Each structure stands twice: as structure tokens, then as C-alpha cells.
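Lab notes, practical 5.
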Amino acid sequence: MPKNASPQRFDAERAAAYDDRIRRLAPGYDLLQSTVASVLAARLPDDAHLLVVGAGTGAEIVTMGRNVSRWQFTAVDPSPDMLDRCRSRVAEAGLAPRVEYVCDRIEDASFPRRFDAATSLFVAHFIDGDAAKQRYFHALAEWLRPDAPLVWADLYRPTSDEAYRALWAAWREQTGARMEADAAARAFERIDEGISFVRPATLHQIVADAGLTPPVPLYQHLLWGAWMSTAA
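Output from the prediction step:
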């Protein structure tokens, strides 16, 4: 959702359109999902319980659930319509008995357990301001067991403004081949207004302040990136 927006901004119409739209804007989306699943499968036991924050339409739960047949998941999202889509998708994949649902912000949620790992894909870049992002990562970290991994993905801003402008232009060029010109223009206007890009040094500080180890890069495609840290 755009920064400072309420969860209801992801209403039924936007939730239904999300899967198609994200693949047009992030062409490596499915590769990212499989990369996250593989990275976590290499670290976690077969009976792990994962916290999935910003569960959205359930893509990462389905990918990870198919990858490891005994993993359990707690799906958290503040949008009821997104969670409805997630439930339907999870049920269609035959994974319903392995998933619990919490409709809330992670900063306000409470759970009966700590988790063996957590994921946060395309969530933090909607949060405006370093202090708010730090609260978000702190809330994630406090629900992790010691040494549990956190994997997240977001849009980020390179240290160099020149690099940022070049990658932004390349991203627009690539997206233009997948969307009508007017739709692409509107999408990038919303991104420019609604995404809070973070530079690498700021990201490292936010993660450190939340009690997590320095982030390890896992994936990059233009301005999309993914990282892993570990809880203290």
C-alpha cells in the first residue's frame, strides 16, 4: 500500500489484480520466490514454523509450502481482502491445514510462539520514514527465535544518484514492454509518490538497531533487492 495508507487500500479489486500487476512491474518475481524458498530450505529443519508478514495473495506460502512438505506458516497481513485471496490460493494448493491467519500489522500483532524464520516480501518499502521502518524490523525480530533467519525483499536506492537514475530508466523501459504506456506511466507515478526507497547504509543501520545481523544480499534485479539477516 502507499506510505501512510490504511490496509483497506488493498481492497478486493486491488487484491484480485495484484498477482498480474506485480509480475509486470517485477519480472523476476517468480525467481525471487523460488530463491527465498531455497535459501530457507537450506537453513531450516523440515518441521519449522515460519512467520510470513505481508502475506498478500499467498504466493510465497505456496512456493515454500510445496518446497518443504512439513513446514507450518503463520500468515500476517493488515488487509482482509488480501488475506481472503491468500486463503483461497493456499486452499487450492492443498496447504490449508498448515497455515494460520492473522489480520493485523506486525507492530500490533501477538502470537503464542516465536518462529524459526520470517519473510517480508515487498512490505517495508511502503513504510515511510526510517523510524517507522526500524519499528517494523524490530517487531519482526522480536518474534524470531535466536539465530532464526529473516528474509525480506524491497525496492531500494543505490548509494549513487546516477546509478539510481540509470536503473530507474531501465526499469521503466523493461516495464513498458509488459504494460500499456498509460498504465505504466500511472504505475510509476504511484511508485514515485508511494515508495520509501532506502539507501544501503541506512538499511544496515535499521537492521542493526532491530538486533539483527548485517544483511546479506540474496537477489537483485534493477531496483528490486532481497536480503537475509539473523536474529540475535
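Observations recorded by the TA: Confidence is low (pLDDT under 50) at residues 1-8. The radius of gyration is 17 Å.
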